[in-house]
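On clarity, I found the account of how folds are encoded harder to follow than it need be. What matters is that the chain and its backbone geometry are given together, residue for residue. I therefore recommend that a typical entry be quoted early in the introduction. An entry of this sort, consisting of the sequence and the corresponding backbone structure tokens, reads as follows:
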Amino acid sequence: MANLRVLIADEDGQERTLAQRVLTQQGYFVVPASDGGEALTQMQNGSLDVIVAAVTLPKHDGLEILRAAQERARPLPVILLADAANIAPAATGVRAGAFDYLVKPIQDMTQLALLIDRAAGQAPMPRPIPTGAPPVTLLAPPPVETQTSLAASIAQNQDLNVLLNQYAIELARATRATHTFVLLPHNDGQLHLTASHGFTARIEAGRTYNALSGEKFALRIAAAKSVQWLQRGADDSPQNTLGIPLLFQDRIMGIAIAHETAPPETISPALLASVQELTQQAAIGIELARLSARVKRLEPLDPVTGLFSREHFFELADRDFRRAWRFDQTMCAIVMDVDDFGNLHLTLGPHETDQAMRRVASTVRDHVRKVDVVGRLNPHTIGFSLWMAKKEHGLAVAERLRLLVAEIQVPTADETWQVTASFGVAAYRNSISSVFDLFGIADQALRAAKRAGHNRVEGV
């Protein structure tokens, strides 16, 4: 909208100047302010249309400016700016009546201009009534562009992690939530935290999720296959937490949780329907990613580690098994599993966990013979088929690999993660009828190593 008068209140001179320059070029009249006192002074002239204020400001913060804007005879719409460490107060401001918030640094000023236009075009907010119970104001559904943007990301075959992070952000905006979580089922049958919004570090997301009894709530949502509310915390404190199943053809593709949302009574049926449509888009994206992963599994190499994929590994291992059976030769199977992989994934996130697995795979591949077959059996398990090897040789190889893996360290925000792995070893004998039985025995030995305390080698 041309000729809008916009107040930009931000202590960060570089960010304020950039916003002023870009918005001025697009036809807005920008009034800058470097602190809250200056912003309140500018508000007194009565000629402003929209206020953009940082949450943290000298003299008077963004929330004080919001209250002043609401107390005017003609309330002014306020857009809050927050860096990564101040998302929670920004979300609180939105629940208190701010139009929306953006996270600094703003990567695309077009996004700010779009929010300003929408804020200026909304109906004026009613002036707060000081006495009596305030009327309940239903939140408006998110704009259609939100679903369109998510659908475009799916059509462009965006990385699943990028897609889920985008969904987590849009879910937070729609429900006015401080934090959002997206969980996907994994091969171990558990729901793993895959994406989140509202945190500066992934480990903080995991701690918050565990503190709100997220796992029990997620299982309740999955069992009901419907929207669920959690209005009391683990300590019986009041909280508004919304859970939504990501469904595709009545199958649970994942669970989304919005924590510290707007009060349930302000979530209109139209808003809830819009959020469910957004969630349906995310579920479609997960299904497409799953189908894409199935196609990739048909390829001979695992894209993350460069080892043989599970299907191709067992084809080659079966060849070795049949040769051992036919010519009465020796063969050894090893199953290696990275210890505490769930916490590793939760702490590092998908990208960094892939990097850690890539280091593990490179280490073990470089320390076995070229005739040995090495493959990734699942995200945290690697299999070895040792041709012409007896049990004692397999145990020696596993012990050597265990020591090498234990030298791998991964730095995190709080500490250095020591990677370890457990190993199960099984030698071929005539009573074993298939390569899958052989590796099943090795897997039993692996489970024994896990029960014995991890970072061990057990053989059968």
User: Anything to note?
Assistant: The mean pLDDT is 84. Residues 144-295 form a domain with the Beta-Lactamase fold (CATH 3.30.450.40). The longest strand covers residues 238-248.
